[in-house]
Amino acid sequence: MPGPTTEPRNGRRRVAVAGVALSDCGRVDGPTPYALHAQAARRALADSGLDRSVIDGLASAGLGTLAPVEVAEYLGLRPTWVDSTSVGGSTWEVMAAHAADAIAAGHANAVLLVYGSTARADIKARRRTSNLSFGARGPLQFEVPYGHTLVSKYAMAARRHMHEYGTTLEQLASVAVQARANAATNPDAMFRDPITVDEVLSGEMIADPFTKLHCCIRSDGGCAVLLAAEDLVPDTAKAPVWILGSGTSVSHTTMSEWEDFTVSPAAVSGRIAFERAGLTPADVDLAQIYDAFTYMTLVTLEDLGFCAKGEGGAFVEKGRLLRDGELPVNTDGGGLSACHPGMRGLFLLVEAVRQLRGEAGPGRQVTKRGGRLPEVALASGTGGWFCSSGTVILGR
Questions:
Q1: Could you tell me the pTM of the whole model?
Q2: Which of 55, 92, 223, 313 could be cross-linked to 171 through a Cys-Cys bond (beta carbons 3.0 to 4.6 Å apart)?
Q3: Is the separation of the CB atoms in 386 and 251 below 8 Å?
Q4: Strand pairing of 241-250 and 15-22?
Q5: For residues 133 and 124, what is the distance between their CA atoms, to the nearest angstrom?
Q6: DSSP 8-state class, residue 6
Q7: Which residues contact 46 (CB under 8 A, 6 or more apart)?
Q8: How confident is the model over 7-64, as pLDDT tens digits?
Q9: Percentage of the chain exceeding pLDDT 70
């Protein structure tokens, strides 16, 4: 059949997720980050059934001096559309939004989003050390001298929510417990043994109120997502998952400029994504939410409209986030249990697509009443210390 056209249909082409894949994840001591990029990219391309020649766009961040150029060279690609937006954990939802807009407008036909990191292996091999901050220039110079780390910023925000709305430590701990329960049936998850609220609360203190199990794990791993124009869908190996809507937002970088510690930028990105998709939170069958810390899950659920502001604690403590709960969240175990090699946002899109396709596997697949597959999924990434947000809504 003829190749894809660069002319948008009726002004805008529909955009599908054509392929998704993970590289080896968890404890991966041998390969370099570049090798994990390549492994994930090859697997995603194989998943799509498309030929690599259709890829004319590349989105990459977090590796090398010239991220998309170096990664493209390593992968043997010569893209005519690139994106290296780097806004922390929300990078990949923001990039997906950019790529979808580019494809819809006819500026690209197939865009590969790819990531890989050996964050755990590098620490173990002493190739890098933990960092106190992201830098000491610009606005951050006013916080760095006081040792105000990333985790302490999230912890301070959590304490504000607890003070203002009565959110409890037990409610925050239940987020970690449910993430671990979801990871239990995921063979790719790094930690699968069940944990209890008491175990979360009694753990080593990292930054009050966060003990160790309130915080994400450190792992190795990579993943890739291939977005394609609707023209290419007849050639794909699997039924498409469509990008229905997306939204992005930035908030602050200096804590003193954050107007309300209990409101994340997902309140804006989510509203925009739902408006563009023509949907509401009630239409969502499952959600993948960036969870570097338990508080992120709770407050993001509020800001996306799944519950009212201040009611996140009561919402999460009743098992609603479990795979068979009212709103399955982070069905792979999330960053708290499955994997967290750095900018985890791309993993959210992979898991959302697999669930919509019905590929999650026995004991892990989310189903609706009557055994039907989910129809709408949401992926929401958060960057920095609630500095940025990207929300993508996907559907079959």
A1: 0.95
A2: 313
A3: yes
A4: antiparallel
A5: 20
A6: S
A7: 19, 21
A8: 554 468 999 999 999 999 999 999 999 999 999 999 999 999 999 999 999 999 988 8
A9: 95
